[in-house]
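User: Could you check the structure of this?
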Amino acid sequence: MTDLATKRRLAELVAEASDGAITADQALTTRLPLTDLGLTSLSRMRLIDAVEDEYGVDIELDGAGWDLVDDLDALSAHLTAG
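Assistant: Sure, the predicted structure tokens are below.
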């Protein structure tokens, strides 16, 4: 199970990274990939930077890391694991 506070914070970061194109509420409640809601590649890069800064992690820009930030549940689970 993912930590709800982490997921909420990530949803806020999505809203910031997308300049409001995706609201935190949309990011929090969707079952769709964030790109389906309008997360652009530039917004995804901003999101990666924000997550790396806030959580002190490195997200690889390969397929797995790139895909990770398209799914808020998976990203939250990744950050709260261990």
